[in-house]
Specification:
By secondary structure, this protein is α/β, with parallel strands linked by helices. It has helices at 11-23, 34-43, 60-70, 85-94, 106-119, 142-154, 171-181, 202-207, 224-227, 243-255, 281-287, 292-298, 315-330, 339-346, 353-367, 394-412, 417-423, 428-437, and strands at residues 3-7, 27-31, 48-52, 54-55, 58-59, 76-80, 98-101, 161-164, 189-193, 232-236, 257-258, 267-268, 272-277, 301-304, 336-337, 372-373.
Length: 443
């Protein structure tokens, strides 16, 4: 039977927790102070620790740090005074699994305990930096190995994570990996782009609504928080949230409950918040476009995803992975890439990161001859930092690249314009406009 260490100087709280855990078929041992807790840790084997933040002979943070160092297999959840957001955040930063506020909500407590026990006694992940993640994060560079290691550590916590990085660098992939490695992996991972929802629909999309709450609400809707209940909610481009929604989001995160539009009461939800943005949130706080209190609440732990130019050595392995996937998706023969073409990619700066690499290879895959991509199939300059000497027109250069790609597609399809447009991933109308603009319609 799994065993929980309870640390609190209030006898009533200890008794409440003991009864609750007993009804969950869990054993428990209780300590009234820090010294007694440390003695119990030395003599008994625990699967979880629940500790108050204020102890007669010390601080709950001391216990969190001690267990992190000497008993890393034991998740620690802290009990904080109601409204002590700063205390809760400090505990999460120190390595606490999660927190619950006084007066203790038993429904939330049971959910927390169930999640924590899924992680208990799992081996530490630090020694498994090279182990494959449940989500494909491809690369052998120092930067990617460190990213994988950080993801493995973050998966063992319930602390909100803010993922920073350039557009196309793989922030959502990192978020999915954190979810897939953690105790919530059997529940939903719900991703939403905060910049893609009309402002007037945001509250309903996030929190749901009840039938008749506004014009067009012909049935109840649960909302994204409820859809992610028990799992993870990924808020991409969170910097794009309008201020009125930032206030409502902050309350939902702090209270761990939501109120659907038109409802009279709040509904408890248990979600892990993972957010991301390519924008600098600290600058947004300074300019007043992002609330400081929300920033501190979502940015308990920051994960930096490197840009592709920071780990260029991974371009060959990423390229091969993308080409293999394209062949598999198209049920076609594998396509190779020449050494010249690969070197051209390695010298390019990729302002669009991995997403741009995927787009380039997808187009080259469609245009190449004899199942091999050559450097001519890749419409990129050698580097964004290496401009040609003398007179140079970027517009003329891009037109030349575009003309070459279109002519290759037309020749490959025996000048079937509809097929050539499909090969290039363009609508026929757009394709027809391009060939007319470039003077290729008479060829």
């Amino acid at each position: 039977m799994q065993k929980v260490l309870i640390v609190d100087d209030e006898p009533d709280i200890r008794e409440l927790l003991e009864i609750t855990l007993s009804r969950m078929n869990l054993q428990s041992s209780s300590a009234a102070d820090l010294a007694e807790a440390l003695d119990l840790l030395k003599t008994q084997d625990f699967h979880l620790c629940l500790t108050d933040m204020r102890l007669p002979d010390g601080d709950g943070l001391e216990l969190v740090q001690k267990i992190q160092t000497e008993y890393p297999h034991i998740p620690v959840a802290v009990i904080t005074a109601h409204g002590s957001t700063e205390t809760a955040i400090a505990a999460l930063k120190a390595g606490a699994f999660d927190f619950v506020s006084k007066p203790v909500d038993l429904i939330k407590l049971r959910a927390l305990v169930s999640s924590a026990l899924k992680l208990s006694h799992e081996p530490a992940q630090e020694s498994k930096q090279d182990a494959p993640l449940p989500v494909n994060i491809i690369g052998e560079s120092k930067q990617i190995k460190e990213l994988k290691n950080q993801i493995s550590k973050l998966a063992r916590s319930q602390a909100p994570v803010f993922i920073s990085g350039e557009s196309g660098s793989g922030k959502e992939l990192a978020a999915r990996a954190i979810h897939a490695l953690g105790p919530r992996k059997d529940k939903e991972f719900v991703a939403i782009n905060c910049g893609a929802i009309p402002s007037e629909l945001m509250e309903s999309e996030f929190f749901g609504h009840i039938k008749g709450s506004f014009t067009g609400a012909d049935k109840d809707k649960s909302g994204l928080f409820k859809a992610a209940d028990g799992g993870s909610l990924f808020l991409d481009e969170i910097a794009d949230l309008p201020l009125h929604m930032q206030v409502k989001l902050l309350r939902a995160i702090q209270e761990k409950s939501v109120r659907p539009v038109g409802a009279q009461h709040e509904t408890p939800v248990d979600v892990r918040i993972i957010s991301a943005s390519h924008k600098n949130l600290q600058n947004a706080v300074k300019t007043g476009s992002f609330r400081q209190d929300l920033f501190y609440r979502i940015n308990v732990i920051e994960l930096q995803v490197p840009s592709l130019r920071e780990h260029r050595m991974d371009i060959p392995i990423l390229t091969q992975h993308i080409l293999d996937r394209l062949s598999q998706d198209q049920h076609a023969d594998k396509v190779k890439i020449s050494q010249d073409a690969l070197e051209k990619l390695e010298k390019y700066d990729f302002p669009g990161n991995i997403r741009e690499l995927e787009n380039l290879l997808q187009r080259a895959y469609a245009l190449c001859e004899n199942n091999q991509i050559e450097h001519i199939d890749l419409p990129v300059t050698s580097s964004t930092r290496e401009l040609p000497s003398g007179d140079f027109s970027l517009e003329e250069h891009l037109e030349e690249v575009e003309s070459s790609a279109i002519l290759n597609a037309l020749e490959a399809t025996r000048w079937n314009k509809t097929a050539a447009a499909e090969k290039l991933g363009m609508s026929f109308r757009s394709f027809r406009y391009r060939i007319k603009k470039l003077g290729l319609d008479d060829k």
